[in-house]
Amino acid sequence: MSNFKGSLHNRGFLVSLVLLFNSFFGVFVLGKNGMYIIFAIYLLGFEGGSPLYHALGRQNGSRSKQLAQGGLILGHLLAFTTIPVLYLIGLLLIALYVGFENPDINDSVYTADEADPDLAIINKYRFSTYGGLLCQLCLFALLVTVSVWQKLKLMAFFNPSGDSLKLTYLHGVAWPLLLISLLLSIVTIYGQQYFKPMHPSH
Q1: What is the pLDDT of residue 202?
Q2: Is residue 202 part of a domain?
Q3: What is the pTM of this model?
């Protein structure tokens, strides 16, 4: 279980990044239906990530994982823009990675020799929740900073009324949050590669 804490933290951060932050920021980029589009993108990625990357990797687990990790990094870079098509592709790539990782995390958590079957699901969502809480903490810290700096109401982000604040939230919140997520993802990917020879997966 301990080998996958980093992956679970990263998973929680990514889920909150897409479903929490971008469900609101997506309204600035995509219009009034942005929240629904983001939900649809996440569901598509979560359900399709594993079959898609395994098909692209021709059932080679290592190659499939490399493709998913490359997609995750590219997804972050594309999400830095407010061009709707590139923005959506970026979020889809992030969601596809979450979907790809989920079955592997489940197998590793539930079948590990040291795992208590009765506590496995609790442990999985506990560590994933830590990552989600970290994302939320970063998000609200950035929102408070931007709100004070620009003399805005804190709740203005959650009730978008037009495009006038899009660049403010893009530069002051979206970019720093994406950068934190990208760095966390790179550390997680590096950790998976580093510990792989020492702790082979079951």
Answers
A1: 37
A2: no
A3: 0.85
